[in-house]
Every structure is written in C-alpha cells, then in structure tokens.
Amino acid sequence: MIVTGCDRAPEATAGRRWGLAAAVTSLVVALLVGSPSVIGASPRDRASAALAPDMPYQCTPGSAESIHGKFGDASAIGWQGNNQGVVACLGGSFYVQNGVDTTYGYGIYNDSKTTWTNAAGYLPALDSTFQRFGLDISITNFGDQVSIGGNPFVAVYSRVAIHNPTRRPIRADPEPSPGLLPLSAPSVTVAPGATANHDYVIAVDRFGQAYSWPSSEALSTAGGFDLHFAHMRAFWDARLATISQIGIPDRQLADAYRSGFIYTQIARSGDHLNTGVNNYEAEYSHDVIGILANLFTQGDFSNAQALLLSARAVVGSQGQYEDGLWTYAWPWAIYLLKTGDLGFVRANFSTEGRNGSKTASIEDTAHRIALDRAPNGIMHRTMDIDFPGSWTIDNYEALMGLTAYRYVAQRIGDAGEAAWARQQYDSLLAATNQTLTATVRKYHLGYLPCSMLDPNSLNTCADPRDANWAAPFLFGRWAWDGYLFGANVIGPGVDLIDSTYASGFRALRGKLPTNTFGGYPPAYYYSTGYNAGYGSWGLASTHHRDQGIVSYEFMIRNTQSGPYSWWESVSAPSAASPWIGSHPGSGQGSAPHAWGIANANKVLLDSLVVQRSDGSIIIGRGIPNAWVRTGRISVTNFPGRDGRRLGFTISIHDRAVSLQLTGDDPGGAVLLQLPAFVHNLRHSGVAGVDESTGTVTIPPNTPHVIVNLVHHA
Q: How far apart are CA 623 and CA 629, in angstroms?
C-alpha cells in the first residue's frame, strides 16, 4: 500500500531512507577503505549522512492557509481539471491535498544553491538541480493522468537523477518520504561517470470521486517515469496547439505564456475555473471573468459553453465582488466574436439557470448595472478592491459590461436591448466623466484617481506602493477593451492615461524599481501577480503602449516564486533563498495565480495582435522598441472572427520591417501599428499611413509589405 489518501496506510519501500546503523556503517567503510565515499561534502553533510536521515524540504500551509516552502516558494503540478492540484516547492518537495495534507520529498536535498525550472522551459514538470557530496543531482516531479481499473487518477512521478562526475564511487541515497513507491532500484552507490535514476510514483487525485485508491502493484505496473513523461508532454503540447502560438525575442516570456496556460488548467477543478491550487482554490466572480476572457482571446474554446454557464453561478451568487456580475457579458462577447456561435448565445441571452437570479442570464447581469447606480448617476460603493469606496474601476467595468452587452444584443438581432444598452452607456459615461472632471479640478489632480470622489491621499492609494493607484488600468478594462468593441471612449479615463502612469511611477521613484506598480497591504508592497496586467490601458495610450510587456519582463526577472509562478502580491527579493536568481522572500494569495496569469498573457497577446469587433486586426501595437532591434516576431493560430485562424511574421533587417500575413483571410482591415513607427516612417509603399499613431493600413489581398524606418527603433 502507498500513502496518498486518508484511507491508506504507509508501508516500507525499497527506497526508504537509511537507518542510523546503516548510515554509520557506510560512512565508516567509506572513510577506511575509500570506496564508496562522501567526498566534496561539508562537515555538516558528513555528520548528517552519519547520524540520521535528512528531512525533505518542507512545503506546508502557512499564514492564511496558503502552502509554500520556507523561502516563500510555491508552484503547481497536476492535471487538467483535477479536483485539487499539487503544490510544488523547491528541492523536489510537493504537498498533496485531497485530505492527505502531507509533504513528500527527498532528504538528499539540503538547501544548497539550486536552479528550479520547468522541463523544456514550459512543461508542468518541475526540476530542481543542485550539488551535494560532489554529485550533480536533479529532482523532477510531474503529474500524469492514469487509468487504473477503469478509473482516472492523477499520479505524481518523480525522478532523482544522481550523476557522479568524480573518479571514485560515491554513496548517495535519495531518502524518499514514506509513501513514495519506487519504480526503479539502482544502487545507492554511483560509479564514476555514471548516473543513477531513482524513480517514484504516488497517486494524488481522483477527480473528486470516491472510488478506491489504486494499490501499489497497480501503480507500479501502470508504466514508468519515461512512459508517463512522454504522455504528459504529448497531452500538454496538444492542448497548447489549440491556442495562439507566439515567437518573440524574449524566450522566457514565451515560456511564461505557455506555462501560464497549463497552470490555469491545473488550477481548474472540472468546469470550475479556480484561481489557485492553494488558498485561492475557489472561484471568484471577477477572476473567472478575466480567466475566461483570456482563454477565448488566446483561442481555447474547449468546453467553452460549459465554462460560460458555470461562470453565471459564480457571478450570480458570489456577493463579495460585484464587478464580476457587471462584466459577465464580456467573455460572451469575445466568444461570439471569435466563434460566431449565435445559436448558443441567443439561447442563453435572457435565460437563467436552474437557480434563477443566482445563475444569472446575460440580460440579468447587464440590467443589474442600471439598478446598482447611485443617485448621482455613478456606480454605488463596493468592496471591489477589498476596501469600501466609490471606486473608479467600478464605473469603467460597468461601462465595459454595457459595451459587451450591446455588441451581443446587436449580433443576435435584439434591437431593443441594444438600444437600451447604448442609452445606459451614454448616461453612465456622462455621469462618470462629469464626476471625475469635478474631482480632478477640485483637488488639482494630474492623474486619474482611484476613487471617483477623492484624491488618492484620502484612501488606500495614499501609499504610492499600493498598486491600486493603477487599478482602473487593469480591472477597469474600458479604455482598451471597450475600444476593441466599438465603445465611445472619451473623457478623463483616456485623457489621463499617460499622466497617471507618469505620476504613479514618479511617486515610486526611490521606493521601488522601475516597471513595478507596487503591491498590496499590509506587507507585500514590492509587486503583484497583476503587474503586467496593469499595463493593459497603456495600449490605449500614447507613450506607454509597451507597458504590459516591460512589466511582464520585470515579473520574470524579479518576482517568480516558482518557475513562472507568481503570488498575488510579494515582498522584496531575498538573498536567503537557495533558488538562484532574484526571488521574493514571501507572498500572499496563491501561487500560481490564474487571474494574474490571465491578465499577463492577455496583455502580452494584445500587444502582438488583437481583433476589434468590426473585424479589423491590429498588429504590433505594444511591441517594445528593443524587440524591433533584435529580429523576428510571429504569431500563428490566432483566433479571428467567426472561426478564422490568422498569423503573421515580422522580420527586421536594418531599418526595413517586413510583415508577412499567414493563415485565413482576416476578413477586415489589417493595421500594422508598432510604437517604433510613430513619426519614424520613411516610405511604406502602401496607402493609409498615420504618422502620429505609427499606423500603416495594409490594403486588402496584400499578404506582404515592407515598411522602412527613418531611424533605428
């Protein structure tokens, strides 16, 4: 028997850790005859090997029930739609939930300097590589779905690979936790130049079912590490093939994009789009909306109908965050734009689920916006940024919801509801603009305030490190995503984008590095998992169009708490962590954080290519100038209107920028719009050049153009 559930008991395995007598005897023999030896080890290592087995690196619940290692590290392994993903920590340790609530790992890991990465750069197979006893050691863990007795399970497969680069044999036991079932039995003495692969397995998930856990015999005969690694890789590569593929100069950013999609599927429990695999292992209304919007933007429509219908139960019954209810029409609008599935959308436009208003229709959520307006015409007070107030983001989210609702009503042919949505939009926009203009003038502000009624100095945004100063630029959606759906985008919300970015970053100067927006109270003010997403409205600006990408790059350089895994907010990097690089000392929320991932990957893809509701395609609007100096940028399999799949390649040679369109006919105008083009175009060879926005309009049936720059980007 193996320990992966509360109804099972541990048993001894061939790979269990050394006993005291065996350890002492082995060490004495090594020292007297020189083979095998524990060379290259510190006195502490020698004492540890001689006196007692080491404990695996601890990966356990901490404050607020989040699960992490002692250096604040946390990531995830598992399978798509598993009931509860597995929390992964440094050194090959992982924490199994599902009532087991136990850390498994390997005592051979000793907190020495470690590289921690995804296999192949993006797969949910996490590899910790380090040195001990003069040996090169890597511990790799991943989850795979297995079928045993006709029932599906998730099993975690582990490999402790021990390579001996020396000229003498060295004894090294992986020291696995009890309950890890060995799949191989190499000698614990590693010959010179040889590698010993110690493989293990443990069942960790039953997809929420109650059938019996598999026996040790059944698991051991279900295949080894290599077989299951190949199956795991083939599955995730096939899933990734359904979404937009990106090729960009920053390889780490491309890997983060791919791994983020996978982490989102592991956080998911069936049709429930949970935010995390630890602590936030639940659905939150605005999180679900953002996750869906990103999946559809990327082009993943697998089980889309069930996910949309499941989300209405979240937004209709989850009372903490009202903005998710107001924006429920938004993912429906993206789904309809990309798929053209009028039948499904029309069938659910005004139809509630079985629980009435708790499983709201699209129409219900839009009309709720009108009911939730305050007497002065703006949206009423909420807790939508975790503090009570008349928040600016709420008004822009409501405007976004009305914009999306109008689009959906128009597409399904409901002229009455489309007209109602337009009237409500115009009324709310007027009230929003009037109120904000009055607040800006009254307090002589040069920025968009987080509150409709007060300067930032009178609320949580008084601390410039509180990232809520930029909340409208992400959670508000309107200035960029409203524009994509044809909204009338006017007023302080768009006029003050650049000055708000400038003001916020100026206030952070000397307090935090460039391109972080800060974090959240009480003690995690360094950065957030939303850091890239805060650059979303930059795409609607003049001077901060690449903000989403450069802030995403900041996250990769400074705030990973696991391989491409970020907490909702984090403290400053700590030198104490053995993980090589710059990594936060602690974090809060959940890591990985699926909503943060969704925001980061959506702004990344939007910066490369995006489609408006009129069918037009915008290419390159947020591409950093530095990338224009470094070569090739491409996207394939991008979801266009009504089922089309599009692509492009931008190649740069000297000051010549070449665009090659691929895939289906876009069915609308194509706008090449790199920031490097602004007032820097020599001769495009095509009509439709706008120097002020750096836009080159590509004529129909023109798959290839070359744009020449006056100066290097």
A: 11
CB–CB of 348/361 below 8 Å? Answer: yes
Which residues does residue 95 pair with via DSSP β-bridges, in sequence order? 87, 103
Q: Specify whether the CB–CB gap between 192 and 169 falls below 8 A.
A: yes
For residue 155, the one-letter residue type is: A
In total, the chain counts a number of residues equal to 713
CA dihedral in degrees (110, 113, 118, 124; nearest 10)? Answer: 20
Give the global pTM: 0.92
Q: Which of 197, 130, 128 is nearest to 162 (CA)?
A: 197
Between CA 576 and CA 586, with CA 581 as vertex, the angle to 5 degrees is 50
Q: Rounded CA gap, 420 and 406, in Å?
A: 8
CB 684 within 8 A of CB 707: yes
**Residue 281 phi, psi dihedral angles, 5° rounding:** -80, 65
Supply the pLDDT for residue 4: 29
Q: CA of 237: how far to CAs of 241, 382, 639, 669, in Å?
A: 6, 42, 18, 32
For residue 432, give every residue at least 6 positions away whose Cβ sits within 8 Å of its Cβ, in sequence order, or none. 378, 395, 396, 399, 452, 491, 493
- What are the pLDDT digits (tens) for 626-682? 999 887 999 999 999 999 999 999 999 888 999 999 999 998 999 999 999 999 998
